[in-house]
Amino acid sequence: MNNIQIITDSMTDVPKYLVDKYSIRVVPLTINFEDGEYRDGVDLTGKAFYQKLTEVNELPKTSQVTPNTFIEVFKETLKEGKEVICINGSSKASGTHQAALLAKNELNSANSNKIDVFDTMGLCFGGGFYVYEAAKMIEEGKSRKEIVDMLKKMKSKIDHIFTVETLEYLKKGGRLNPMKATIATILNVKPILTVVDGLVEPLDKVRGSKKVIGKMIALAKERGGDFTGKTIAIAHANDPKKAEALKEVVLNELKPKEIIMTEIGCTIGTHAGPGTLAIFYHK
């Protein structure tokens, strides 16, 4: 039995089967709708969240995990005789990583020395990839230092390519100029986006939904090179059919060693909206 516990936040969208397989502890962010608070992936998941999202006029607010929550989780884990690697979604998108650092520093040095807090600068499984790789290394019996060194080497090497069904949610969330969003909608322009230094950036665009998957694959080939022996993750926001269509093309065109399927949770889904589709891989 290993003595290292991986803790992550719900922004990394690690699928349940991997959470269970590797005994990963997920600390949820909070989604604040007008009718109350919901813990991401606990009180509100999948279909119910996206249904609720389409019924409200104002986007819900997302709240970071608090330092006190991390303190409790860290103390519980240390009490079990385990060391901690806490792997968080992008610090540019949420204060959750900072809260984990504050929590670590609140503990006495004997305890804080048993904790590493890592900022993936990734969104969705762009952060989850770090969790997955660390979990496999724990199973292989690697030390905490070896795992953290590997995570540092991975930095900036996990690529995100994603598209949104509608620009409405990015516009509502203040992440896109309203005029640009309106023009793009009228022209039926579908943006292809990526993540640079922890924040969403435009990558390309196509006219019409039918061309989106082809463009995503072309960009992956251009940016990711040879996918033989690599793992690709596919994430969707309440659109499993579209995700399966993308999976089929990925298998035929990129031929990766492994495909991980996951769903975009409430935190990222709030700003991207239903129908969002993404792929992630090592460059």
TrEMBL record:
Asked if Transferase is a keyword of the record, the answer is no
Entry GO MF terms? lipid binding
Q: Which InterPro entries match?
A: DegV, DegV_C, DegV_domain_contain
Q: What keywords are assigned to this protein?
A: Lipid-binding
Q: Which PROSITE patterns match?
A: DEGV
Supply the name of the protein. DegV domain-containing protein
